[in-house]
Specification:
By secondary structure, the chain is mainly beta. A hairpin with a 2-residue loop joins strand 13 and strand 14. The longest helix has 10 residues. The N and C termini lie far apart (57 Å). The model has no long low-confidence stretch (mean pLDDT 87).
Amino acid sequence: GELDAVLQKLVGLKPGIALHGAATLAGTVEANPAGTVAMDLSLRAENIAAIEAARRYDIDKAIEVKLKGAWDGPTKTLTADSVSLNSSFATMTGRGGATAGGEIRDTSLQIDADLEKLAGKLRTFLEDPPLLGGTVRADVKAAGQAMSATIAFKGLKVETIGPLDATLRHEGNLDTGAHSVRLESGKPATVQITAQVKKDDLRADFKAESDLEALIALFPGKMQIKPVGPATLAGRLVKQGGRMKIEQGTLATGAVTAAF
């Protein structure tokens, strides 16, 4: 009905497809006069399926999200003792908290997803589903103003690109504005970015090293050029106000080096 029409516009639902299932919200919420609220909640959707004419396409037997935590009114602090997601294609576990002033309490989050399984389920009800493959694991940690994240891809495929094993690492501090990002994917590419971010200003030193033959192999039939060996791209990206420019840029391939 109306929900299917909204979903068709919002997420590209196939014409003639209807989503079916049962959802249950259970748990407790307790408030006391001191201004604190404790919660233990579970949202569970079961027997999720896409229905097209007389055909039924099962999407997932159950997807469940759980949250156990509290809100402290006097200190304006939200704490999650535990938060979790369970499904046939992805899981998530975490804990943490934050204050209204922006201070992050000891927080951690771990996500595991099978992208091929996810893509298979999206194909049942999306008109133009993405072509995905591989798995991903994300580990995120934060405390105070410091944060770090590690995202590992195994056999990653996006449309016709891949498969690729890669690891993305980030360390940063919101107070100092210092951030470091490193992408490692073996021969295809290694990228290192060290940045300083302050309001509207950005200064980032970058360096990318690649074996062009291995990189081009990730794009079968897309890049009709002959590999010329290892290549290095380096420089500094500067943004002040609304202007962005590259300083000290160099591109080196073999014995040839070009500045820009």
